[in-house]
Each structure stands twice: as structure tokens, then as C-alpha cells.
Amino acid sequence: MPGSSPYEASSAFVGPLAEALSCVAHGKITASAGGKNDLNKVHELHLTGIAGDGYVRLRGDRRIEMRARMFYEIIRDPRPGYGPFRITTRGYDYSLRTSDGLAVVDYHWHPLGQSHEKDPHLHIGAAQLRPDSVLSNKDHLPSGRITVESVVRTAIESGATPLQPDWETRLAGTEYRHVLHRSWH
Amino acid sequence: MATDTQTDPAATVDEMTPEEQRALLESEARRNLNMSADEFAAKWRAGEFRGNEDPKVTQVAMLLPDAW
Which residues of chain A have pLDDT under 50? Predict the structure, then answer.
């Protein structure tokens, strides 16, 4: 989402993410140094905070834990309606795991210089695999671009208790705004 | 004047200091790969993790400022 300043762009970016996350968790959203204002540098956004290993316990009998990290840049965009400043996502790392620390599913997008897998993908976690499984947790399964909202939905569908009675409407709203402004799908 | 966090969500976002960011990377490198951040960064830049498909490697690498 655009902003008239780098700070406004970062605020427009964070708002919907915070609202989406609030459907299942209350984390202390934390950015890397300069993450609210510095242009042309990849920043970190820890949506579930940085305490411990960054996971938050979700309510519900399944005792699922979630961690959500995004990597982004604040850039100039001269196109009408897209700027003058906006956020572009550079990568993400969304994870669901059991309360004893076993991965359930990891959603990754990390087009790093040395990555051999630069498209969005997921890893099936060890908690879901058997020793004789065909797949392993190291397999990169193509997923298409994953939104924070879809991870929240997966958590709820997997047994996490929603914290907002209108969670479906909230997630639809925040996701729509994101899809409207993102530059690729 | 109090900040209206509904119109300014960024006001609720903490921003790490460079030292805190460095400490986070150190913690993640040690917890996931049993090595220091400096050791991990050196190995990453030297290409020693090329072909390593362990998701923990890229989860730590994403926290390296110069990996992008």
C-alpha cells in the first residue's frame, strides 16, 4: 500500500498485517533497525515478535504455535496510485509447529542470491512425516505466493481458536487490500 | 499528543537496534545450526551451503543483511 512518506508506507503495510494476525494471536510486531523509514534496504518484520524463538502459542486444544516473518523494502514508486512510497515484499518465512517444537508446515519465499529455490514453496514439517514417507521436510513443494491471511486460516482450520468472531471477514478484507496492490501473484 | 494507533499502525511496531538485530541473528544461528553468526555468515558468503536443502539454513540466511 502506498504512502506519502516512507513512514506512512510502512504504516500502511503493517496495519492490515496486524489486523490479520490479531485473528489468532497478539504478538509484539518488531521491525529491524530502520524498518519504518530507510529506503532501498531489505528490512525484517517479525509479526509474532522476537521473544524467544519468535513463536507464539495459539489458543485451542491442538496447542499450535505460529511464527511469521516478512522481508521487505520501502521504495519509491512514481506510478499514479502506487506511491510516492510503497512497500515491496522481498520474502517471507511463515511457520506452524506443535507445542513441543516439531514443525507442521513452513511456508518460504527466499529469493536470496545463493538460494537454489527462489519461488514460493512449502516444507511439510517433521511432525507430519513418518520415517518411510515419500517426502521429507527438505523437499521444496511449489505453493504459489502465500499470504499471512492464508497462514492464519490454516492455523484456524488446524484447531487454533479464533480471537475475533468476525475473523473470516477481517481476513478477507486485509487480504483483498494486499492482493489489490501487490505487483505479482 | 497521543498517537492514534488505528491511523498509525507503525506506532505500535518496535524497531530493533542494530545490536538487538545482531543478537537475534546470533541466537538463530546457534539454535538452528549450532554455530555462531560470524561462522554462519562466513560459510554462507563462501558458498558452503550451496545445495544444502535444510530449511533451517535459509531461515537463518534470511536474517543476514547482505544475503538479499
Answer: none
